[in-house]
Design a protein that fits this description.
mainly alpha
Length: 159
């Protein structure tokens, strides 16, 4: 006996499979067919199968056209040639930039970027909360840890 959660999961899997694969159940992956077997008689699943079957019939009835010789030639001409180097993209440009600074792996670059970002955010936060980096460390710490540091904003009064 299946629980209501298992049945709901099977129903959701069946509806997802109907959306993905259509009404031809024999073309579905085995796991999806298994899920459908348990819930096939439920009204919403049956309606979804009927709607998918109607869409399948409409798509089967639609005329198909072979691509023109011109379109085929343009597609083949624009396709990458075997053995040709791919066009450089953003990732290649970023790796090239990192290598110029002596960083040979993306992990080192990510670590450096996150450290720099953390430093910038930390300084910006300290300045925006305390008002100045020139205050004493004790004053900055008190401003950052005060339980009602922003109470004046809530009250609408001056700090």
């Amino acid at each position: 006996m299946t629980s209501s959660n298992d049945r709901e999961r099977a129903r959701a899997a069946a509806l997802s499979a109907i959306d993905s694969y259509g009404a031809r159940v024999e073309a579905w992956p085995e796991a999806a067919r298994t899920a459908l077997g348990d819930v096939r008689g439920e009204p919403d699943v049956a309606r979804a199968l009927e709607a998918a079957a109607a869409l399948d019939r409409a798509l089967d009835a639609a005329p198909t056209h072979a691509p023109s010789a011109d379109l085929r030639a343009r597609l083949l001409a624009s396709a990458p040639k075997p053995g040709a180097a791919p066009a450089p993209g953003f990732a290649d440009a970023l790796l090239s930039l990192l290598e110029r600074f002596g960083l040979r792996t993306p992990a080192a670059g990510a670590l450096s970027a996150s450290a720099a970002l953390g430093l910038v955010v930390g300084v910006w936060t300290a300045v925006s909360v305390t008002g100045s980096l020139e205050d004493s460390p004790e004053a900055q710490l008190a401003a950052l840890t005060a339980p009602s540091a922003y109470q004046w904003v809530i009250d609408g009064s001056e700090p």
